[in-house]
TrEMBL record:
A molecular function (GO) term: oxidoreductase activity
Protein name as catalogued: Sodium:proton antiporter
GO annotation, cellular component aspect: plasma membrane
Organism annotation: Thermococcus gorgonarius
Pfam families for the chain: Proton_antipo_M
Localization (cell): Cell membrane
Keywords associated with the record: Cell membrane, Membrane, Oxidoreductase, Transmembrane, Transmembrane helix
InterPro entries: ComplexI-like_HydComp, ND/Mrp_TM
Length: 625
């Protein structure tokens, strides 16, 4: 079967699964999702040699699957298989129809995003993923899910889709519709390259959950059922893919941009410190998740600054880390789903259900120790080339960031020991051993063992990885020893990586209050930033309630002072809009049309401007109405 046919088949199966979920329920739909993982994997194999073409006859979409796309498609296929198989035996809280619809359409959007080379379809896929993951959060029906959903969609619209639409419009103005055409027409852009960098960085940093757009991660992970969190992990992965695609294949490499990306990634690693404040395991691991994605971005930025073999080695580490963290994080959340399956929230005490003689506890332990960087597990293997490549350079800024990341790498291990210690000290209630369904145990085991296997034997993914590096154009080490033992600096990497979990072991045995005192300065810095952001957000909310709410909602004037928050506005009916209220808008559109006619704007610019305006309306009216 031709690769394009397989790609069409995968999209068709996911779309069919979404429709079946809407009318028949999620469990039947997940069989279609499971089936879609097979053609996705076959497409990833075909992508090692690369292929181009057009898919979707009713919506012609150009695709260009190269080895880099194939690498991410391989992970997407594996997670699609794992999520669908797990959900066949999981008691979903919330509306199964809309959850099944959202899962299938989100995975479809991710598949389209990774394979297309059309800038418009890329933007469409980004927006579809944002919308359907928003529905996924909203229909989870957990405490705080509605508020988390609104915050998530506002962030993805304001700092994600609007910059992406603007960048696409600017590219169209330069005569570019694909990545290749954009690279060839950079000189014709009506703005400087730094504007394009800023727009694409904003969009993909939001998608990946990297500082300063990381605020949605912990709230979303807390609100979504654990086995559905890997859907968002897929999104974080294609956020990294988007940045890598733009910086290595489209826009010219810039050391300044490299420093910016590396510094944002290094700052994101500080999120792991906040895990000590959490007893809820999903939020605790969400903070570690922000750190993991941040380390991958730090490595990507460092590779843009470095050159030659060091650049390639660090980039290999970045790719390994973004792939490994997707596996061991998914295994952890699949394991926590076993607790939710019986109606309990995963926390330090409820985890005792898994520690009661279950093999699943061993599988989760394998994954969390992979996250902690215990040799020779996943995070240890992926950070090795990152630290080694940077250690060969004389760049003081990269060295400082590397030492910061190495220091912060001790806290995942300390957090793991904190869970065990607090469980023994605080949780005295005896729990009964409950049988965990076969599918939940099987999928958790498959993902955990896969994360362990590809870390210890990285040659298993060598065809994808080597082809991706060759496509990027860097010098390729002939053997794995050329990556891990490229220079004497590997001793620096090993020293840092071994010291981190050992130090974490010592810190984890210290009482939590004492650790919090030592970390007080970091917490205070975070609280100051949070309060500053909260001040501006509060002023925006007050302005909305005072000036916008009376237009959108029917709120009696005497009750307006009683409306203190956006949640209070949901209690009032939407105002009926008559024709007179639209007249100012109609006149504004007429003036805009006359101005556009005088400037002789092309259709792409008009469509792009309309799309930006609609995204703004979604935020102002759709969200708060």
């Amino acid at each position: 079967m031709e690769p394009l046919t397989m790609l069409n088949l995968a999209l068709l199966l996911l779309f069919t699964g979404a429709l079946v979920a809407l009318f028949k329920g999620g469990r039947i739909a997940y069989l279609f999702t499971l089936s879609a993982s097979i053609p996705i994997f076959l497409v990833s194999i075909a992508g090692i040699d690369g292929f181009k073409g057009e898919i979707l006859p009713f919506l012609p979409t150009g695709v260009d699957v190269d080895p880099l796309s194939a690498l991410f498609l391989m992970v997407l296929a594996f997670l699609t298989f794992s999520i669908s198989l797990y959900l066949l035996d999981y008691r979903v809280r919330g509306d199964e129809r809309y959850l099944g619809l959202s899962v299938n359409m989100a995975l479809l959007s991710a598949l389209l995003f990774i394979t297309t080379d059309d800038l418009e379809r890329l933007t469409l896929a980004y927006e579809l993923f944002a919308v359907f993951t928003f529905v996924l959060i909203l229909t989870s029906e957990t405490k705080g899910s509605r508020k988390a959903a609104w915050r998530y969609i506002v962030l993805t619209q304001l700092f994600g889709i609007i910059p992406l639409l603007t960048a696409t419009s600017l590219a169209h103005a330069a005569g570019a519709l694909t990545f290749e055409e954009l690279r060839a027409n950079l000189a014709n852009l009506p703005v400087g390259l730094w504007v394009m960098y800023a727009l694409y960085l904003s969009a993909f940093l939001v998608r990946a959950g990297v500082f300063p757009f990381h605020t949605w991660v912990a709230r979303t992970y807390r609100s979504v059922p654990s086995p559905l969190i890997p859907v968002f992990i897929v999104g974080e992965g294609f956020g990294f893919y988007g940045i890598l695609r733009m910086t290595e294949f489209v826009l010219p490499t810039s050391k300044t941009v490299g420093y910016v990306i590396a510094s944002l990634g290094a700052v994101s690693a500080f999120a792991t410190l906040y895990s000590f404040r959490e007893i809820r395991l999903k939020r605790k691991f969400a903070h570690h998740s922000i750190m993991d994605v941040g380390i991958a971005f730090f490595a990507l930025g460092a590779s843009m600054v470095l050159g030659g073999t060091a650049e390639t080695i660090v980039l290999i580490g970045a790719l390994l880390h973004i792939l490994y963290q997707a596996l061991y994080k998914s295994a952890v959340f699949f394991g926590l789903g076993a607790i939710e399956h019986y109606g309990e929230e995963p926390n330090i005490c409820s985890i005792r259900k898994l520690l009661k003689g279950h093999v699943i506890s061993l599988l989760i332990s394998l994954s969390v120790f992979s996250m902690a960087g215990v040799p020779p597990l996943a995070a240890f293997v992926s950070k090795w080339p990152i630290f080694e490549g940077i250690a060969t350079s004389k760049d003081i800024l990269l060295w400082l960031m590397m030492l910061t990341v190495a220091f912060l790498s001790l806290f995942p291990m300390a957090s793991i020991l904190q869970i065990r210690r607090l469980n023994r000290e605080l949780c005295k209630r005896e729990v009964e051993r409950e049988e965990i369904p076969l599918m939940i145990r099987t999928v958790t085991g498959i993902v955990a063992i896969a994360g362990f296997t590809v870390a210890v034997f990285p040659l298993l993914i060598h065809p994808w990885l080597a082809s991706a590096i060759e496509e990027i154009g860097g010098p390729i080490p002939e053997t794995p020893t050329g990556v891990f033992f490229a220079s004497p600096s590997f001793l620096v990497a090993i020293t840092l990586l071994v010291a981190a979990p050992l130090a974490g072991w010592r810190v984890g045995r210290v009482p939590t209050d004492r650790v919090s005192e030592l970390l007080l300065i970091f917490y205070n810095m975070g609280d100051i930033l949070k309060e500053a952001f909260g001040f501006f957000l509060d002023e925006f909310r007050k302005a909305y309630i005072r000036y916008v709410l009376p237009i959108i909602k029917v709120v009696p004037r005497y009750e307006l002072p009683l409306v203190k928050d956006v949640d209070d506005a949901f209690d009032y009916p939407v105002r009926h809009l008559d024709e007179a209220m639209f007249m100012p808008l109609i006149r504004a559109v007429e003036r805009l049309a006359r101005w556009g006619k005088s400037r002789n704007l092309d259709m792409n610019a008009l469509i792009g401007g309309f799309a930006v305006a609609m995204a703004v309306l979604i935020v102002l009216l759709g969200v708060f109405a």
